[in-house]
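Team,

Forwarding the record for the chain on the shared tracking sheet. I've put the sequence and predicted structure together so nobody has to dig through attachments.
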Amino acid sequence: MKQKSNVELFLDGLKERLSEDNRLSLSYATGASATQLAQLKRRYPYCPESLLELLSLINGTYWQEYGEHTITVLMLGSDVFEYPYYLKSVEQILEENNYGNSINEIYGDYDDDMPELIDNAIDPDINIDLWLCFSDCMNNGGTSRLYIDFNPGKTGKPGQIIRFLHDPDSYKVIAASFDEYLQMLINDDYSFIIADE
């Protein structure tokens, strides 16, 4: 019997824990086409296979239209438990226009507190638009976003997952790879899921 992939295991556990309404919404989702995935791969040649697999099954949950249904399912998390996240579609990822600047260019001569807010595994001179933004948090990304970084700092690893958090702005590596990120969510027992009140 074929062993399930990390993505399949993640989705199995997710569906078990989602509310009935969110499970129903997610059931309308379909995967990105081979053409769409190829476009993503062209833009981000080092896009991890596990993200491509996830998008091949669910092409986004961020106000994403599937026929007559528009779904908004918070299906991802981070180390900031107050903010669950949507999965962006291939189209949304490709349309993403960050800043065209590096962290250093955005913040200029930051004060003494800023180094603590930028993980030393991140290269602050790399343009943020080189990162792949695959997820926005529940308030449309204004508070937190998740990225895959292919150009890390000296202590980082290509493909590491960066969590951006606003006010005060901080950039932290929360996993060394997308697979490790999914495993982190599984190990945390999907604690990002907010129970219906």
